[in-house]
Write a structure and sequence with these properties.
79% helix, elongated
Length: 124
């Protein structure tokens, strides 16, 4: 039960943050699916044109990794949301702090972007 002097804006802000994390997780899963299926698409194009395909299946495993990352982000955000709501319900002050999941995700996506850029430059 929330404290009598609880500000509903705190709960609404927590809800918006949670929904933003859900969108991020879904976007990662969707992008992972597209990446995983892109290799299959390239193989179909190569088979239709009679060209030799030299792909190693990198897109499949990379896509699966992105899907797994999306699942991890979604699950972590759910746990974080529940803990935040419990803290608000107990009337404890909510101190703003960096979200370690967000910082970790941003760093990981930056590394992935650099690796993908390098891969595209060297593959052409």
């Amino acid at each position: 039960m929330p404290p009598a002097d609880a500000d509903p804006r705190d709960y609404f802000a927590a809800e918006r943050t949670f929904l933003a994390w859900i969108r991020t997780g879904l976007a990662l899963m969707g992008f992972g699916f597209v990446v995983a299926r892109f290799g299959l698409f390239l193989r179909e194009i190569a088979a239709a044109t009679g060209e030799q395909m030299t792909a190693t299946g990198f897109s499949k495993w990379f896509g699966i990794s992105l899907i797994g990352l999306g699942v991890l982000v979604t699950g972590t955000s759910a746990v974080s949301h529940v803990l935040t709501i419990r803290r608000l319900n107990r009337g404890q002050p909510f101190v703003g702090r960096p979200t370690w999941v967000g910082v970790l995700l941003a760093g990981l996506l930056a590394v992935i972007g650099v690796v993908m850029t390098w891969f595209l430059f060297t593959a052409a």
